[in-house]
Design brief:
This protein is α/β, with parallel strands linked by helices and about 1000 residues long. Strands 14-13-27-26-25-15-16 form a seven-stranded mixed sheet, with helices on both faces. It has a six-stranded mixed barrel with strand order 32-36-33-35-34-37. Helix 10 crosses helix 29 (about 750-760), helix 12 (about 415-425) runs parallel beside helix 23 and helix 26 crosses helix 28.
């Protein structure tokens, strides 16, 4: 990534790379006769790359660091040939990169590599200008391959639906292993260095599709050739690819035969011409992931509407990282289930309509309802999957065109309590810092967060910091998910009691003088009142209420108080409780008491679930706030909007998502417009919701598919997917990023912003936006925390974390100088415990937990359109503990009926150790609406935000006679057995009797990497 014009150098602070110790002192070294600035201890190769000196480096990747398997970066270091990647800089080094000895070693190393690789670049699917093996051939310019290619004798592995592995093309560089072991930290891949013919192994030798591989795509992304390649690329990318296999093989033979007489350079020249030709029809477009809130960004490769691959690399949040959904979960865009014409309900069902007819009908019905019943008879729900610009227009439409504050978004279902709790304590309801801060913490505490499945790329950073840097990880959860298994300490409190242990830890810390006294005195208000509110939260009381032993609680309190940098992460296991806001405030209080705000590696992180749920709140899609969390009663906000919109904001708070259905049943809400939300499956107590939908006079649903919610609609409008439009998303880091149009909207669909504008114009509004950038300019004018946001400052992979000053300076880390209150001080929020309301009873004796799973997103409307994902996770299921299964005679695959006071569902059981005793776990995704978990959840919720208490649910289980297949097929990664190791373990390669350092030097041996590097630098 080149230098870019961002005032605060955000791109430098956010750059993704390997986990390394801090850089040493500045020093100077001599490279090819020129002095170069460096830091002691950094890889020599990075200094050479900064100097823009061309040097072969096949196995090296800036986000992996030194792997030291390929030897192609051999240079002369103080007169001795050594690896530039594995040599740590020290002051005064004299390095020469192009001596005869160095060039000979580089070519020899490359020749040894390609003896493992069948060079047929001209007809290779991966010949797209980014093949490291091909580019290194061009750089080193050898005339011939002196060591002939020898097949390895292993078949191609095509058992994974998303990518394939060809051992005969594998150069054994180990990049994929390093990425899997130490970036993704799934620890599936290794190299069998001791095998007679080494190869990459999945779970020590299982087929890829039957291993612990989570299909995150890291290995494919970093592979320097075509050994690992996306299935979607095979036979699709090149001018000569995709030809029948006999012709293909013959073409390869021709290429290989020509090389003998003409040399490699003639073949290379032809392949480069062919590669350049692909640029005419392969588009590479930057976008931002449309799934979770981590905010991964990457290039999407397309050929017309055909998606060839997703290529990450420059994204601030993710770098080379993706998850299965972000890398491979895009088939939904071209699904045959996409809506392509507006639908209008008639007595006999839905009929297709033109856009003009549908939009005219929407406008006229909204106008007539407003005229007959007033503006508050209408309400609007914005989508957390829409862009910021589109969400902004939803609330503008409600307030300016209709005149109501009845507008909300799906954060009401998940994150509103976290926003509330943080607003009460530190003033801003978002993450305190970025993923970089989470990586830098000495202790990470996660509470009610299945991070590895809900926010997989963010979880990789925690796993990596734990594995490589010794970060401590404590997990509070009901269920033993991956992060719980990896944690240094896994604690299972009783459901709904996180508030109690958090308050008890704070009390113990204060009572024992373990608090950060200076921080509290200088930066925090309300200590006396807070002490009084937690007076009863002794360790003994907490142990009785939570089930966590007193000794464990005391040790935790002492550890948190003693750690230098603490981050607390939480998600729906906290917020979807009756006391979600109070628990969020309690966690923030604990951070305040210990001084863990305003410093790198500290802070509160309520992880956002949807790609733009943070943006939905930021843009003012809420009943009492406009964009930037400005209250509708704020005089300055009123003044700004009056100047910009020509209306006076109404001061009365509108109704939220959960209140809308009650209002419909009461007859006060007549019309509702829902954009991109599957409310009929995601709202709690969906049977109650259905009655509310049916009570409405008019319902508009705007979505990609004919969803379950669309069944209740009067008008259904076909929307465009994120790949089909431009705009911005805001991630959980408060990071604003641009997405670009990858392809034209599917014929018959429209982006949301165009739909809102068309209806607004029909209702007399003077909206004349020509591009989403026009909307962003308006957002910046109305929103103090976004005043410096422009499309120019977000060009390409640039990003900004709000608040953003007028000069473009952003704020990745909050509260370094002051908290977001008038006096600049934080507030300790008095404690109020709100226990659960629907604990198990004699009739409903099992506690029901719910949440996400890695393969699917939310209810599954998008991911069930991806065949590869469906093959891994075909449908929902209920996890049953081994104890409960033994007690009641349940086996995996058995159908059961779960019954609550609100409804019932029929699902298959999965017996597992992930849950214990009378705990059940039902994923949120369901292929069929009849199995949706929210047929079981009730209407109780958080007292401050009305967020449903989804996690406060109890059921009984009825065993049914049918027994089906195990709901997790054998190809699901959860059946695999990872093989953890310390990266690629190149020492094992060096120990092979057939290993020779380039140029014929003896194999190197050493007790440690440092020894090897020192020996190589000074003694070899």
């Amino acid at each position: 990534m080149g230098e870019i014009d961002v005032p605060n150098d955000a791109h430098l602070r956010s750059r993704v790379g390997p986990t390394r110790p801090p850089l040493g002192a500045r020093c100077s070294i001599l490279v090819d006769g020129v002095a170069q600035a460096a830091h002691e201890g950094e890889p020599l190769l990075e200094v050479i790359n900064r100097a823009q000196i061309e040097l072969a480096q096949v196995c090296y990747h800036p986000q992996l660091g030194p792997v030291q398997t390929c030897d192609t970066c051999a240079v002369e270091i103080d007169g001795v040939i050594g690896r530039a990647c594995g040599t740590p800089v020290r002051a005064g080094l004299v390095v020469r990169t192009q001596t005869n000895a160095a060039r000979t070693a580089q070519r020899d190393a490359y020749d040894r590599l390609v003896a493992n690789h069948d060079l047929y670049c001209t007809v290779c699917d991966n010949n797209n200008g980014n093949c490291t093996v091909h580019n290194t051939l061009t750089l080193l310019a050898p005339e011939h391959q002196t060591r002939p290619f020898q097949p390895k004798g292993y078949p191609k592995d095509t058992s994974n639906p998303f990518y394939q592995y060809d051992p005969d093309q594998c150069i054994l560089c180990g990049r994929c292993v390093e990425a899997c072991q130490n970036v993704q930290v799934n620890e599936t891949l290794s190299i069998g260095w001791e095998m007679e013919q080494p190869r990459v192994l999945w779970d020590g030798g299982k087929p890829v599709g039957e291993s612990s591989c989570v299909s995150c795509g890291h290995c494919v992304t970093v592979c320097p050739c075509n050994a690992l390649i996306e299935t979607s690329m095979v036979g699709q990318a090149g001018l000569f690819t995709g030809i029948p296999l006999p012709v293909w093989n013959a073409a390869i033979d021709v290429v290989k035969g020509v090389e003998v007489s003409t040399g490699l350079q003639a073949i290379t020249a032809i392949s480069e011409i062919e590669s350049a030709g692909r640029d005419r029809y392969i588009q590479k477009t930057k976008t931002v992931c449309t799934y979770c809130g981590v905010g991964c960004s990457f290039d999407v490769w397309t050929k017309d509407r055909q998606l060839l691959k997703v290529e990450p690399g420059q994204g601030h949040a993710n770098g080379i990282s993706t998850c299965v959904k972000g890398k491979f979960g895009w088939d939904y865009v071209n699904s045959g289930e996409r809506l392509t014409k507006p639908l209008i309900r008639e007595a006999t069902g839905f009929r297709e309509a033109s856009w003009d007819e549908a939009l005219d009908l929407v406008a006229s019905r909204l106008e007539s309802i407003k005229a007959a019943h007033g503006p508050d008879a209408l309400a609007f729900v914005a989508s957390s999957k829409s862009t910021n610009e589109e969400i902004f227009l939803v609330q503008k439409f409600a307030r300016q065109v209709i005149g109501t504050n009845n507008v909300d978004n799906c954060s009401r279902y998940c994150q509103s309590p976290a926003t509330k709790g943080l607003s009460q304590t530190v003033g801003i309801g978002g993450d305190s810092g970025t993923i970089h801060d989470i990586e830098q913490a000495t202790l990470v505490v996660t509470v009610g967060s299945n991070t590895a499945e809900s926010h997989p790329v963010l979880a990789t950073r925690i796993k990596r910091a734990q594995k490589l840097n010794g970060q401590q990880v404590i997990v509070f959860d009901l269920r033993e998910h991956e992060m719980a298994r990896r944690a240094n300490q896994f604690i299972r409190p009783k459901p709904g009691t996180d508030f109690v242990w958090a308050s008890a830890l704070a009390k113990f810390i204060l009572d024992n003088d373990l608090e950060d006294k200076v921080f509290l005195q200088n930066r925090v208000n309300g200590l006396d009142e807070y002490r009084e509110s937690i007076a009863d939260y002794t360790l003994a009381y907490a142990a009785a209420e939570t089930g966590i032993p007193e000794a464990t609680l005391e040790a935790l309190a002492r550890q948190i108080a003693a750690e230098d940098r603490v981050c607390i992460l939480w998600a729906m296991g906290v917020t979807q409780q009756c006391g979600g806001s109070d628990t969020s405030a309690a966690l923030s209080n604990l951070l305040l008491v210990t001084g863990n705000y305003g410093r790198t590696g500290t802070g509160a992180y309520p992880l956002r679930g949807h790609n733009n749920v943070q943006g939905a709140g930021d843009m003012g899609a809420m009943p009492d706030q406009v964009s930037g969390y400005q209250k509708i009663t704020d005089p300055l906000a009123i003044q700004r909007h009056e100047r910009e919109w020509g209306i006076t904001l109404r001061p009365e708070k509108g109704i939220d998502n959960t209140e809308m259905m009650d209002a419909a049943l009461e007859g006060t809400l007549k019309g509702l417009w829902i954009s991109g939300e599957e409310m009929s499956l995601t709202d709690a107590n969906v049977n109650h919701l259905a009655k509310g939908f049916e009570a409405l006079d008019f319902l508009v649903v705007q979505d990609l598919y004919f969803t379950n919610t669309a069944r209740y609609a009067d008008v259904v409008l076909p929307a465009a997917a994120s790949l089909e439009k431009e705009g911005t998303f805001t991630s959980t880091e408060r990071r604003i990023q641009r997405l670009y149009q990858v392809m034209e909207p599917l014929k018959g669909t429209k982006p949301d912003w165009e739909i809102y504008q068309a209806v607004a114009q029909r209702l007399g509004a003077n909206w004349a936006y020509t591009h989403p950038s026009d909307i962003m300019s308006e957002i910046a004018r109305l929103t103090p925390s976004w005043v410096g946001v422009t499309y120019e400052r977000l060009e390409g992979y640039r990003s900004l974390c709000w608040p953003v000053k007028e000069d473009g300076t952003d704020t990745p880390l909050l509260y370094t100088d002051r908290f977001h209150f008038p006096d600049g001080k934080a507030k300790l929020h008095p404690a109020t415990y709100k226990p659960r309301q629907q604990a198990p009873s004699a009739e409903y004796d099992l506690h029901l937990n719910s949440g996400r799973m890695l393969e699917h997103f939310h209810e599954g409307n998008m991911t069930f359109q991806v065949p590869g994902i469906v093959s891994k996770a075909p449908d929902t299921f209920v996890e049953v503990s081994r104890e409960l299964a033994a007690e009641r005679g349940i086996q995996s695959g058995q159908w059961v009926r779960l019954v609550s006071p609100h409804g019932s569902v029929k699902v298959r059981a999965l017996v597992t150790g992930r849950v214990q005793a009378n705990e059940l776990y039902l994923p949120m995704n369901a292929r069929h609406a009849e199995a949706a978990v929210n047929r079981l959840t009730g209407s109780q919720g958080d007292s401050q935000t009305n967020t449903p208490a989804y996690k406060d649910a109890s059921v009984r289980m009825e065993l049914l006679p049918e027994v089906g297949d195990n709901p997790l097929p054998v190809t699901n990664h959860r059946w695999g057995h990872p093989t953890p190791q310390d990266g690629v373990e190149v020492e094992r390669k060096w120990a092979r009797p057939d290993y020779v350092f380039p140029g014929g030097l003896l194999p190197m041996h050493g007790d440690s990497l440092n020894t090897r590097v020192d020996n190589l630098s000074a003694d070899d």
